[in-house]
Amino acid sequence: MQIVPARAKKAQGASLSIVPIFLLVLSVMASMALVAQRAATRQEQFELTREKHQLSQSLSFESENLLANVARDDTLGNLFQHQRNPALAEAQLVGLNTRTTLDFSALVDKTSGQVIAEAGDSDTAAQRKALIVELIESSRMRGVSQATLGIGREARIVHDGSSVLSLIAVPIGRNMVLVGTKAFTPIMLRRLSTMLSVPDLRVFKGLVLQETSYVVQPLGSQPPLSLIWTPSRKAAETLADLAFFGLIASLAVAAIAVLVFKRIRASTEAILVREAKASHEARHDPLSGLPNRAVFCELLADNIEDLPHRDSSIAVLLLDLDKFKDVNDTYGHAAGDKVIIDFGNRVRSLLRQTDVIARLGGDEFAVMQMGIHTHMETTRLAQAIIDAANRPFTMDGATMRIGVTVGISFAPDDGMDVATILRAADTALYRAKNEGRNRFALYEHRMTEAERIRKLVDDELRGAIEREELTLVYQPQVHADSGRIASVEALVRWRHPVHGLISPATFISAAEERGLIVPLGDWVMRRACRDAARWPGLRVGVNVSAIQFRQSHFPENVATIIREANLEPHRLELELTEGVLVEDADQAEAAMMELRAIGVKLALDDFGTGYSSLIYLRRFAFDKIKIDKSFLDSMEATGESAILVHSVVHLGRALGLEVTAEGVENEDQRRFLQAVGCHYLQGYLFSKPVSAEAIDEMLKAERDQSALASPDAA
Ligand code: C2E
Ligand code: CA
Ligand code: CA
After folding, report:
1. Which of 365 and 107 is assigned the larger pLDDT?
2. Per-residue confidence at 140, pLDDT binned at 50, 70, 90?
3. 575 CA → ligand 2 middle, Å
4. Half-sphere exposure of 611 (CA within 13 A, CB side)
5. DSSP summary character for residue 284
6. Pocket of ligand 1 contains residue 503 by CB under 6 Å
7. CB of 683 sitting under 6 A from ligand 1
8. How high is the pLDDT of residue 150?
9. 293-443: CATH homologous superfamily?
């Protein structure tokens, strides 16, 4: 089963697309174009209005100018004088026309409407005259009284059906009016056209309903006439330019965006790939490619969380290969690797899609079996796994055999969190190993306390020695007569960071079973000898386990330790139990001889609990016997024990041994033991086992007391 971390899955799913970027660029471009287009339309409208306005202003300016020139002319007075003489008046008009560039002028009687005199270009004169008469007539028609009628001083733009004209009128006296016209020639129009930037200004016969036109008022009843021009269209040009440059710019922006986007996508993809690879590596065992412990725990946690929504259980199987070390040692690490990989594959082929196998490390695997309803489903799988492991593995023609031990626990039955479930499976695995390996065991709620401790020792004692979690306490043995401290016994304690202070009564035997007693014993002896250096003259008792004692180099070891601690050998007292002597008496005897040769003292511990054959006492050269506490306990209940203790003490003394009574808890016991001749007493009555510093204090108090006592004695 491939396990892809959730984060990587997400990252792969979120495929980056170019579409949004294009849409963005497109919408920016579109809104830019819209704004530009609206600005251009506005600008164009404004331009048109301006052009029309300027044209009308310029036209009226031309006629006003004409009017001013005419009105300023000196000959107007003469005209007034010659009003009754048409010939003279006409001569005046010809001169006026030339000076003021009028193309036609007429002196008109306002009252009668009659043209008194006229002058103008021969081809236009007749038509002009007719128009002016018409004008005068229409003016006269407007009013009621002739006196109030007439043309005043004015300038107008009109047309005559074919040309645009400036029409001016200047009153001459009370009754006369000088009326003149001047047509806008094509040259004049061209001049206006350039001056006003209204290109191609021209006359159009008819009414033009377009924006670039100026409708000219008719002088009489002529058909309509307009001035038209080509719009300058500056805005449109600007817009075109803008559109062009906008397009170029947008294309450039889009191109850059695409490039940047591609770069980003490439690097993002690279990062994702790298991340996914790193995450895969961090989550999988590189050798087998199986998920590692972290992944297994994560998946287990997820599935446990999901359990309340299901009607099935989860089984956790911890697999520990048997004889895997032999494969490594015999065939090499490549063979070991091959076995790990093959075994992983074999187990995988037994699992369903939803099940998970992980390699926890070394030769340990874990299987999570999902959706099970009966334990049978799991035990069947466990047996199949064992069978798979028992089939030979081959490499380069070599055939390798291993086995596997399986510990099984269930969620929710055995717990509802990862740690509890794994611990349960581990405890079951432990039991299966103790029962002889290559088998499976189900976790039972009442796995014994001893098993728990043994497991704790298994798992942690070795580390505890290295981490210096062990300490020594010392219990004094006092002279029965004086009560002064004669020696101390070293007793080991384990300060476990979680379980607190653990008594040696619970872990010594486990340490013996697990082969950890040797390093432990070594450590104790070393530390006790070092501590003894601070108590000159005092003996230090050290408990020696049978296994430790049976080591061939034990005496040599002791010698080295004593030498290193610079301790007088007779100050070290080894406490041995009968167990030491039972198994191989000859070897034990030899070792004891060696130890005596070094100079250390030997005590027979727990005397009275074992076989207690007196033979041992005779055969083996002990210096001391320690009567077990159980004697004192039963002494209180039955008188018989008192006699026994009595005789043991006697016997000891008879053999020339020192006798210590252990577990002295009250004054009665002390008095009795003193009375029967016990040399030393040890027990809570005097002191519980205490720290080395506390022993320092006790010794100091004793010295102080004897210092006080000695002057009196003197
Ligand atoms: P032990 O050698 O017989 O040690 C005496 C035990 O009796 C100690 O228990 C001590 O605390 C306890 N004791 C002493 N006086 C009294 C008393 O007045 N009343 C009662 N009820 N108990 C008393 P501890 O320290 O728990 O040690 C238990 C056993 O563990 C020792 O029995 C010894 O066999 C073993 N042990 C302790 N330290 C070591 C060690 O460093 N190496 C080895 N191999 N065994 C050790
Ligand atoms: Ca002891
Ligand atoms: Ca003892």
Report:
1. 365
2. low
3. 6
4. 11
5. B
6. yes
7. yes
8. 52
9. Reverse transcriptase/Diguanylate cyclase domain (3.30.70.270)
The topology under which CATH files domain 51-228 is Beta-Lactamase (3.30.450)
What pLDDT was estimated at residue 335? 93
172-205 confidence digits (pLDDT tens) = 887 888 889 999 888 888 888 888 778 888 888 8
List C-alpha distances in Å: 291 to 4, 294, 344, 362, 392.
Answer: 10, 8, 11, 14, 25
Q: According to the model, what pLDDT value does residue 145 have? A: 41
Per domain, the residue ranges of the chain are 6-48+256-281, 51-228, 293-443, 469-707
What would you report as the CA-atom Rg of the chain, rounded to the nearest whole angstrom? 64
DSSP tally for the chain: helices H, then strands E: 25, 24
Does the beta carbon of 652 sit less than 6 angstroms from any atom of ligand 1? no
Cβ of 684 below 6 Å from ligand 1:
yes
645 φ/ψ angles, rounded to the nearest 5 degrees: -60, -45
Tell me the mean pLDDT in the region 577-585.
81
**How far apart are the CA of 522 and the centre of ligand 2, in A?**
16
Residue to mutate (ligand 1; options 501, 503, 506, 508; most atoms within 8 A of CB): 508
Tokens linked to 189: 């129009």
Provide the β-strand partners of residue 400: 393
Residue 208: predicted pLDDT: 75
Angle between helices 639-654 and 629-637 (to 10 degrees): 140
Topology of the domain comprising 469-707: TIM Barrel (3.20.20)
Q: Which pLDDT band holds residue 1 (cuts at 50, 70, 90)?
A: very low
At residue 314, φ and ψ (nearest 5 deg) are -115, 135
Evaluate if residue 707 carries a pLDDT over 90.
no
Query: Which ligand lies nearest the alpha carbon of 489?
Result: 2
